[in-house]
From TrEMBL:
This is EAL domain-containing protein. Residues 31-281 form the EAL domain. The chain holds residues 503 to 792 of 792 of the full protein.
Length: 290
């Protein structure tokens, strides 16, 4: 990246070189500032989680929620995880941040009724950090959440770094009784061999494949193939990013088991989730009284 800019700068003369140097300096500085801010964001209470429902497509029943991290920056407002997570990963700040996510999500889910699941995203750096399985174990004990209600979502980039170590860690995690889902299936590097090499419990097809699955023949073919792989391997498939009723009915007619997306429910703060539970409870008791 730096080399390219330098090359361009040289070919364009001295002043341009200074210009690029200045611009790159700015970018690097902004990144250092963000790294610094991320180190303090947990203790400054700038993070919160939102929860997005995951539903069974045949009955519409709620299975659980995925916890998604939000950063409310004191000056710059909400910053998207797509922007700050890569920075937190590179600086290592994702390890304490991820632990906060795990703790907060498990503690919330421990208070929910029934057997609702909680899905938590775990990044590569976190998965490979020292004692990660021990951390998960401790959080489960501290929050009282049953292990079978926790599912961690891992993208393929987390696995390819060090396959051997990733496998050891995943086995330790599974030994705790928790579930492991492959996130963003199809977008990574060598999805199929990863599926074979690692003990996943679920496949999450990336939302980009669900877009227009009901109207685009290519999209439909790919999704049907993934559903076939899931069936063959005995793994449930979750479709991410379901945005329309057309996409939903296509997926249901192809026996995709689970869905998640704006059409089924937006990510919402814990207060809204709890209010929803109360409304459901009220409806049930009204129905019983009638
Ligand atoms: P992901 O785990 O694949 O999460 C799904 C993303 O799709 C979320 O974006 C969600 O808000 C968005 N989404 C849900 N339904 C729809 C839909 O119908 N249409 C569209 N277009 N998008 C939908 P979000 O919250 O911005 O998170 C982006 C990514 O950041 C996540 O992708 C995940 O990789 C990462 N992330 C989020 N929270 C955490 C976290 O706590 N830890 C780590 N390590 N990564 C996280
Ligand atoms: Mg995810
Ligand atoms: Mg995903
Ligand atoms: Mg993603």
């Amino acid at each position: 990246h730096a080399d390219t800019a330098l090359y361009r700068a040289k070919s364009e003369g001295r002043d341009t070189y200074r210009f690029y140097e200045h611009e790159m300096g700015q970018e690097a500085r902004a990144r250092r500032i963000m790294e610094h801010e991320l180190r303090h964001a947990v203790s400054r209470r700038e993070f919160h989680l939102v929860y997005q429902p995951q539903k069974k497509l045949d009955t519409g029943d709620l299975i659980g929620y995925e916890a998604l991290l939000r950063w409310r920056h004191p000056e710059r407002g909400n910053i998207s995880p797509g922007v700050f997570i890569p920075v937190a990963e590179e600086s290592g700040a994702i390890v304490p941040i991820g632990e906060w996510v795990l703790q907060t999500a498990c503690s919330a889910a421990a208070g929910w009724k029934d057997d609702l699941m909680i899905a938590v995203n775990v990044s590569a750096v976190q998965l490979h950090s020292v004692n990660f399985p021990q951390t998960v174990h401790r959080v489960l004990l501290e929050t009282g959440l049953s292990p079978h209600r926790l599912e961690i979502e891992i993208t393929e980039t987390a696995l390819v770094r060090d396959m051997h170590r990733a496998l050891t860690t995943l086995r330790q995690l599974k030994a705790l009784g928790i579930k492991v889902a492959m996130d963003d299936f199809g977008t990574g590097y060598s999805s199929l061999s990863n599926l074979r090499a690692f003990p996943f419990d679920k496949i999450k097809i990336d939302g980009s494949f669900i877009r227009q699955v009901d109207t685009n023949e290519q999209a439909a073919t790919i999704v049907k193939a993934v559903l076939g792989i899931g069936r063959g391997l005995g793994l449930p498939v979750l479709a991410e990013g379901v945005e329309t009723s057309g996409e939903l009915s296509f997926l249901a007619s192809e026996f995709c088991q689970i869905g998640q997306g704006y059409y089924l429910g937006r990510p919402s703060p814990i207060e809204d989730v709890l209010r929803e539970f109360e409304t459901e409870e009220q409806k049930r008791s009204d129905a019983n009284a009638a």
